[in-house]
Amino acid sequence: MPHESGFRVERDSLGEKRVPKGAYYGIQTLRAFENFPISGLRPAPVLVTATAMVKLAAAKANLKVGLLDRKRADAICKAAEEIINGKFRGEFIVDAFQAGAGTSHNMNANEVIANRATELLGGRLGSYSIVHPNDHVNMSQSTNDVVPTSLRLAALISSNGLIASLKKCEKAFSRKSKEFSSVVKAGRTHLQDAVPVTLGQEFGSYASALKNASERFEAAGARLKVIGLGATAAGTGINTHPRYRDVAVSELAKASGLKGLKKAGDTFEALAFMSDFAAFSGAMRLACMDLVKISNDLRLLSSGPHTGLAEITLPPVQPGSSIMPGKVNPVMAEMLAMVSFHVMGADHAIALAAQAGQLELNVMGPVIGHNLLGSIEILTNALDAFTTKCVAGIKADKKKCAFYFESSAALATVLNVFIGYEKAAEVVKESQKSGRSIKDVVIGNGILTSAEWTKLMRPENLTRPADLKGLLKKEKKN
User: Do 224 and 326 have their domain in common?
Assistant: First the structure.
């Protein structure tokens, strides 16, 4: 093969190009690199790993069904395993925004593996007579089934970390719920005073929300285990051996270590629809909606500290102002909200791409994969930082909570049981007009005695179902 100093010349159906002499990628990768100088973003490392797993599984399957010889199969498998183990990552140079369906990414993988396999067999880089990117590495495959399969694997592998981070955050809130179980405070609805709750109940709701989010992820992840590998270009499985699909999916389970992988019941649906990715992204969107609510709650509860609610304090992690000395901001909660907004925006892009398929193929896989895998990564990192640097160190201001609890006009709600809603409302009006506390009005007007009021105001009577009338009758008998 002719080549100039520092370069080699490769040919494809469009002509010739000079490829850097030591590059493991080839001419089709280089064309894509030149065609798509879009974002500077490269494929997610987990996607590269997943694609190499697909190539490894395909080579083993082709060997077992008799389509690929042992020498080439072993070299391809060795090259793919090296990529899985982290080698040659700098050879994956195609922009995240590229040719539809991810053909450029697939060929990038094919060329890197072919050149490395050729090298292992004693050949020169760019000499594809020994191991060819299309004929051997891509045997029994098409971009159209390789890329969706790779995305499914990558999302599943990444989601393990995301679910673990969610559960870690859930446990942190659960621990705080127990720690704050006896801290009674004023509840708030419509941002106005409401009936009492415990700080532990508030934090328990956050833990429950995250538990629900984890369960939604696990349910959505189960659908990602349905694999369309073997569908090839349009769903027919053209150019594959009749046993290839079963063997390939089995080998893919071994290569990835993922349990429960199974072949798609309808290979045409597997290529034409991206609903499973949209469902997983939707689970992230729902989780982020809850996380924004939680971050806003923490910011409100810690607001002040002298002119806000200040019922809790968040760990100070950095100075909060370039001009106001001593100011500390709830930066970890703010960060979590910003990440959540980003993920929700990415979900919208995924939804648009998922509905943009035509006929036998949805070609929007690259943008779906970029947004899905990117969202999983940043949400995982954000949750880890938020849990460690914020939730774990939250403290309650018990005195401030008690003050708001005792000052709340919503305490009059317990009077509904004894004097009805209308008369209880009159008590509230009198309290607000006179400036006297609800307690003083109730006792002063003879509605309840001081002992009865004290009995009713116990936290266990106000923050869970209780027979209030029965409590006072029992008190009188005693």
Answer: yes
Question: Considering only 156-160, 224-228, 460-464, which range has the smallest mean pLDDT?
Answer: 460-464
**Helix extents (H) in 273-330:** 275-301
Q: Cα–Cα distance between 6 and 92 in angstroms, integer?
A: 20
Task: Give the contacts of 444 (CB within 8 A, at least 6 positions apart).
Answer: 436
Given 378, 398, 418, the domain boundary residue is 398
The overall pTM is greater than 0.85:
yes
What CATH number does residue 421 fall under?
1.10.40.30
Q: Report the pLDDT value the prediction gives residue 474, as an integer from 0 to 100.
A: 64
Contact 133, 112 (CB under 8 A): no
Let me know how long the chain is.
478
Which residue type sits at 127?
Answer: S
Sequence-ordered list of residues with C-beta below 8 angstroms from that of 1, at least 6 positions apart, any chain: 8, 9, 10, 124, 126, 127
In whole angstroms, give the CA distance from residue 137 to residue 72. 9
Is residue 6 assigned to a domain?
no
Q: Concatenated DSSP letters for 26-85?
A: -HHHHHHHHH--SS-PPPPHHHHHHHHHHHHHHHHHHHHTTSS-HHHHHHHHHHHHHHHT
pLDDT tens-digit map of 394-424: 999 999 999 999 999 998 898 898 899 999 9
Residue 461 CA to residue 414 CA, distance in Å, equals 10
Structure tokens at 3: 């080549």
Q: What percent of the chain has pLDDT over 70?
A: 98
The answer to whether residue 11 sits within a structural domain is no
Residue 289, class by beta-carbon neighbours within 10 Å (0-12 exposed, 13-18 middle, 19+ buried)?
middle
Annotated catalytic residue 321 = yes
Among candidate residues 5, 129, 302, 321, the one labeled active-site is 321
User: What distance in Å separates the CA atoms of residue 29 and residue 108, rounded to the nearest whole number?
Assistant: 5
Q: Report the 3 state secondary structure along 93-128.
A: CCCCCCCHHHHHHHHHHHHHHHHHHHHHCCCCCCCC
